[in-house]
Amino acid sequence: MTDNTDDRSDDDRSAFTRVRTRLRVLYHGQSPEAVRFQFAVLVVDLAIIAFFIATPLLRGDPAFLWIDYAVAALLIADLTARGLATSDMPKWLRQFPVIIDVFILATLLFPAWLANLGFLRILRLWTTTRRSFLWKPLRKRGLGHWREPVQAVINLLVFLFIVTGFVYTFFAGRNAGIDGYVDALYFTVASVTTTGFGDITLPGTFGKLTSIVVMIVGISLFVRLAQAIFRPHKVTFPCPQCGLQRHDPDAVHCKACGHLLNIPDEGR
């Protein structure tokens, strides 16, 4: 009896190990099958992000809660699979993108209680861009230098939608001139670009402080985007001697200490 129980336990552990190994290959491998799987995951992620962006417009639809819980089920499946695919789950759980995804899952599971925080779901776009497989096609085609500008654009878009959701949630219908989601987006873009048409203003001290934060952070993100696009292309390769991180793509020696470098081609 004991032997049979031990055999079943060994079989269960072996099956669990095979599942984890399979998921690790699919999420982190470079085989054609793994690439197809990663592309499918990316398509699902983009569909989820599109739902998050459209949430303010869909909230009144009778099918909204069904879609909301369906997205929650997809997110649970993705988090579980990514957790099983990692080799160090406690360390993985402490990563900031994972914590954000867990928070987003909470807003999906409890939409009535956390309705005012739903605008933060767009952070899923930011967490998606932190995954390495998203940038593999660029590196393979020698276009790895585009990662920084694309990431800067995404950071700006995430900020725009977060602020738009915040303004819509806390100021719509409160004598601020914001009657819908498009009005909130219009105010956000006008503030971030410091255009300041003045036809929509947030009332009270809280509104003024919100506008100030939006303008300061928005300008910073625009400057970051301009730097990423126009400054000379550098590659990230820590110098073994002095630790300098960024070098010219064709650098042979470190500019700081002169140490011989061996920077791999981006296409490798």
Question: Please, could you describe this protein's structure?
Answer:
The chain has helices at residues 2-28, 32-58, 64-85, 89-93, 96-109, 123-128, 136-140, 147-171, 181-192, 204-230; strands at 235-236, 246-247. With 268 residues, it is mainly α. The protein has 3 domains: 1-142, no CATH class; 143-231, Helix Hairpins; 237-268, no CATH class. A two-stranded antiparallel ribbon has the order 1-2. Helix 1 (2-28) packs across helix 3. It is flat, with a radius of gyration of 23 Å. The mean pLDDT is 81.
Largest sheet: 2 strands, antiparallel
Mean pLDDT metric: 81
Amino-to-carboxy terminus distance = 55 Å
* Helical fraction: 55-70%
Rg, Å, rounded:
23 Å
Number of domains: 3
Q: What is the overall silhouette?
A: flat
Give me the side-by-side strand order of the main sheet.
1-2
Q: Point out poorly predicted stretches.
A: none
Q: Per DSSP, what share of the residues sits in E-state strands of 2 or more residues?
A: under 5%
- If helices are DSSP runs of H or I spanning 4 or more residues, what is the number of helices? 10
Query: How do the SSEs run, as a string of H and E?
Result: HHHHHHHHHHEE
Count the E strands: 2
Class computed from helices, strands and strand pairing: mainly alpha
